[in-house]
Design a protein that fits this description.
The protein is mainly beta and 181 residues long. It has helices at residues 7-11, 89-92; strands spanning 14-26, 41-53, 56-69, 72-86, 101-117, 122-139, 144-155, 169-180. An eight-stranded antiparallel beta barrel has the order 1-2-3-4-5-6-7-8.
Length: 181
């Protein structure tokens, strides 16, 4: 039995992928006179990643999404760096030749470029963004994998003039694919 933590990472360390996101937007505002109800939206995102170890990967992520609350709407471009840990048993114990279902958890940080609009004005700003994610990869071989997961995204207030102290958040259900090379 060989314990080689870089087995998959040394064979195919890079990957690209894309996913479809169903996003359920929520809102947070400290202004008690405003109640906002976010509507669900859908979007696509793309990723480019580097598998450092079999159990650890780093990926760049780009998401273009839109959101709508009552009379307020946002169009966002989000760029993030994600750190992801795979629960890969076969890298710990080589008695398993393959592991088709690989659970993962991770977090990300980045920036969002927001174009916001309400009934009276339009605003453009940049906001920090954080995310947490969990999911499962279905790895058919060391080249192709399907991803199914959940991601929580929080956009900070930034310099938003549309609504005072408004920081939207979202729950995303994701389905996508990755190609390793």
């Amino acid at each position: 039995i060989i314990n080689n933590r870089r087995a998959l990472a040394s064979i195919r360390p890079y990957y690209i992928g894309a996913s479809y996101n169903y996003t359920m937007w929520q809102s947070y505002t400290t202004d008690t006179n405003i109640a906002l109800d976010g509507k669900a939206s859908s979007s696509f995102d793309i990723v480019a990643g580097l598998r450092i170890y079999d159990t650890f990967r780093l990926e760049a992520n780009y998401i273009n999404s839109n959101a709508k609350w009552d009379a307020i709407s946002f169009d966002t471009d989000i760029a993030m760096m994600n750190l992801i840990w795979d629960a890969r048993i076969d890298s710990l114990y080589r008695m398993f030749n393959t592991q088709m279902l690989v659970p993962y958890v991770g977090f990300g940080a980045g920036a969002a470029w927001i174009k916001g609009q309400n009934n009276t004005n339009m605003d453009k700003n940049m906001s920090p963004v954080l995310s947490a994610m969990a999911g499962i990869s279905v790895e058919f071989n060391n080249i192709f994998a399907l991803d199914f997961g959940y991601k929580y995204i929080y956009l900070f207030d930034g310099d938003n003039n549309i609504v005072s102290d408004f920081a939207p958040s979202a729950h995303q259900l994701r389905a996508g694919a990755r190609i390793h090379f």
